[in-house]
Task: structure prediction
Amino acid sequence: MITIYPKLIHDALATVRYPGNGKNLVEAGMVADNLRIDGMKVSFSLIFDKPTDPFMKSMLKATETAIHTYVSPDVEVTISTESRQAARPEPGKMLPQVKNVIAVSSGKGGVGKSTVAANLAVALVRLGYKVGLLDADIFGPSVPKMFQVEDARPYAEQKDGRDLIVPIEKYGLKLLSIGFFVNPDQATLWRGGMASNALKQLVGDADWGDLDYFVIDTPPGTSDIHLTLLQTLAITGAVIVTTPQQVALADARKGIDMYRNDKVNVPILGLVENMAWFTPAELPENKYYIFGREGGKRLADELGVPLLGQIPLVQGICESGDAGQPVALDTNTLTGRAFLQLAAAVVRQVDRRNVEMPPTHIVEVKK
Ligand SMILES: Nc1ncnc2c1ncn2[C@@H]1O[C@H](COP(=O)(O)OP(=O)(O)OP(=O)(O)O)[C@@H](O)[C@H]1O
Ligand SMILES: [Mg+2]
Result:
């Protein structure tokens, strides 16, 4: 039987390298000063920067092996872990200072989700609310271009013992997009898990602060990202964007089913009919129903959800989106007013929903 003393343990720990920086555990300052030795029982903690350190498990194993090799195979080792940084809040407890989370969605791509999400967010600011906009379209982010902040590189700030990403501020609202962090061509090579993780970081590791409305621009279709959102955030309600064509309406139904089924119970705040009619710039009073008339209204009635607004197809919406100046900034225009009315309708529905229905619960992850 040998006598174990602290230096023996420290020497063993000095043989273990932490792959994150190539230093040994002692040099890297990863050994806490709570070493306890009681006969053949040894306990101490290892300190990691983050509670999610990818090497944590392998380091625990390597440390135990080093003690068994260099001290004695009979040592009973107990290692606990500490982290310098506080953990991200659990799913469902993120964004405690955000009053309402609104997901802008559709079954189909290209119907104007990003346009509606961006302009809805801007219009809510015009109505006097504190607003955040999250671009959750990992593979085709739109926010950087629509707000002309393609070159923005958000930095992190220390707050409450954590490194938090600081959202970009533009036109009075807070913005984050995965597009600020990765080039979309590379994002397409990502595995689903990586995209989900990136999204959780944008929600849970960012300093969103106090907000009345947190608007999320979701990716097209029904993807892993939607599931991650439902598992991460208690979504107050979903706004479904559709266009009047028959096929888009069928897709809107798909979009709605994603939020309303036996596992998910996110209330549908209502439909937005985008490109409801065409209005040429030189004839602003004229309405041409090129995709059919009243399709959005009919679908809303059929599904028993409100029609929150109708947005015309006008060249200006597309141009201003490309130029980084959402049309909702100018409430003197026809389209600016349409988005202001939409925002007011969303506020009414959210208020109603909050009175009439219990808070949303996140979808539990099956282990
Ligand atoms: N009401 C409108 N009038 C004119 N152009 C519009 C209108 N709504 C959207 N657009 C244009 O249509 C294109 C697609 O819109 P947008 O990117 O908002 O759709 P999306 O549903 O977010 O697409 P994706 O599914 O790819 O994310 C954009 O170029 C946008 O500027
Ligand atoms: Mg989009």
In short: The chain has two domains: 6-83, 98-356. Residues 48 and 283 are 65 Å apart (CA to CA).
